[in-house]
Specification:
Elements lengths: L7 E2 L3 E2 L5 E4 L12 H16 L20 E4 L4 E5 L5 E6 L2 E2 L2 H7 L12 E4 L5 H16 L4 E2 L5 E4 L2 E4 H17 L3 H7 L1 H4 L6 H10 L3 E5 L4 H11 L21 E4 L13 E4 L20 E4 L2 H8 L6 E5 L2 H12 L2 E5 L3 H10 L1 H17 L14 H18 L7 E2 L2 E2 L1 H9 L2 E3 L13 E2 L3
Parallel strand pairs: 3-12, 3-16, 12-13, 13-15, 16-17, 17-20
Antiparallel strand pairs: 1-20, 2-21, 4-5, 4-8, 5-6, 6-7, 9-10, 10-11, 14-15, 18-19
Helix pairs in contact: 1-3, 1-4, 3-4, 12-13
């Protein structure tokens, strides 16, 4: 298979045993166009911050897609974006747009290490976090370098006259503004007004879902979005003159699923959940009362919990493959709490694989240097008194790692820094049984396929 068509494996999985395929909508079935969609979110959050009293100069910030990468930690104490490995060891530290040197990192973080403490660290894990990642860097850079703001001695914020602004309060304002834009603001409205601009459309989608059903499995949609937004996005995605095959007539998107759940409120859905209600699809309004009977085909439900849902559809856990883009909300919780099999969608894989193949000589060079480093210690044991000079090899390793990182963008690869795995990468390995760039890659495998972990 072409590398771009592949599905990658962390844990062996036999598709023949999967009776239910569940899909998230945002960034899974509906893939948003990058960087246009991030640009829209970025601009709306900027505008919201200005209405909250932030200086109008911030409206001049322009979104730069080459800077942010998913999976960074934001340290709200010092206002730094951190790229860390699986254990919290710091690989890259950026204050605004200034990449800190080793000595500066050690000053702030003894042992170049930080514990994942949720009261201090926010993990920017989702594709929705990309505009926010870049905006945090812009704001920290702006306030640190503007002459009217003085940086605090303890490096936890800036002063403007008698006014103190901590990096934590800036972070809280940005977080609040992002949530406001998503829930009450114009993000959804502007997306729906210009679907061609912001949403990718792929005529293979009806075919993929139809083939899953032909294999004998059932399909469900499980999304946090409300019904009206879901309906408009899905109607657009299935808006082709034909159905699953060119000779078949067009069908309503709802007919491709056995069960549809909106307003799921994941990850809460995988725990205590909320009340399961039926949605009136003509008005989008919820019907009063809890839905108690069996789930009906072509009906849309709102809320609920995994417990109730799996009983109603007759699923056990291991026979469900859930496909989503959100490591925490979709993948981690569905696996840890419910034992569902998991398939993570990582759109960035296309670029990552392209760089990997394009720059393979750099990876080969790094391996060669690793061998060379080992050779310097080859004939030495615990009795050795002399120390080999490894400084030139270490410098070369650092240079090659830096070149590799820059090939991916300013913050480097999503999965690694040199030969070290990132925190994001470790989570993928731990919680995703399968992963791929798009759900369309299911087209290139038979539904009897045995995915074998290496």
């Amino acid at each position: 298979r072409q590398i771009s068509h592949r599905i990658f494996v962390n844990r062996s999985l036999h598709l023949e045993n999967i009776k239910f395929y569940g899909f998230d909508m945002d960034y899974t079935i509906a893939e948003y166009k990058s960087p246009q969609y991030e640009q829209l979110g970025f601009n709306l959050v900027k505008e919201r911050l200005v209405t909250l009293g932030y200086p109008v100069e911030i409206l001049q910030f322009e979104y730069d897609p080459s800077f942010p990468v998913r999976g960074l930690w934001f340290d709200s104490l010092y206002g730094n974006l951190l790229k860390v490995d699986a254990y919290g060891n710091i690989l890259v530290c950026v204050h605004g747009f200034e990449f800190l040197k080793h000595s500066q990192v050690y000053e702030l973080y003894p042992n170049k290490f930080l514990q994942l403490d949720e009261s201090r660290v926010y993990v920017l894990n989702t594709l929705f976090n990309l505009p926010e990642t870049y905006l945090l860097a812009c704001l920290v850079d702006f306030f640190t370098n503007s002459p009217q703001y003085a940086e605090q001695v303890d490096k936890t914020g800036v002063k403007y006259g008698e006014l103190f602004m901590s990096f934590r309060s800036i972070f809280q304002d940005v977080r609040g503004a992002v949530d406001w834009v998503h829930i009450y603001g114009d993000l959804k409205k502007k997306t729906l007004e210009n679907l061609d601009e912001y949403v990718k459309k792929d005529e293979r989608l009806p075919m993929v879902l139809s083939r899953i059903r032909e294999s004998g499995a059932k399909l469900f949609l499980l999304t946090n979005s409300d019904y009206n937004f879901t309906d408009k996005i899905m109607t657009f995605l299935f808006d082709f003159p034909h159905g699953a095959k060119p000779e078949e007539p067009h069908r309503d998107w709802k007919t491709y699923f056995d069960t549809i759940v909106v307003d799921a409120r994941k990850p809460l859905f995988f725990g205590e959940g909320t009340i399961l209600r039926q949605v009136d699809t003509t008005t989008g309004a919820l019907r009063v009362g809890t839905h108690m009977g069996p789930l009906q085909v072509n009906q849309v439900y709102s809320g609920g919990s995994c417990d109730v849902f799996t009983k109603l559809i007759g699923a056990k856990g291991k026979d469900v493959l859930y496909v989503g883009d959100h490591i925490f909300g979709d993948i981690l919780k569905s696996k840890k709490i419910r034992g569902w099999r998991t398939f993570l969608i990582i759109p960035e894989l296309v670029q990552e694989l392209h760089v990997w193949t394009d720059k393979c000589q750099l990876f080969a060079e790094l391996q060669r240097l690793d061998v060379k480093l080992g050779d310097l210690y080859k004939n030495l044991d615990s009795s050795a008194k002399e120390k080999p000079d490894i400084s030139s090899v270490r410098t070369c390793i650092r240079d090659v790692t830096h070149k590799m990182d820059l090939a991916y963008g300013m913050m480097g690869s999503l999965f690694r820094s040199g030969s070290r795995q990132t925190f994001f990468s470790s989570q993928v390995v731990r919680y995703a049984d399968l992963y791929a760039a798009t759900i369309m890659n299911l087209m290139y495998y038979p539904f009897s396929y045995m995915f074998r972990a290496p």
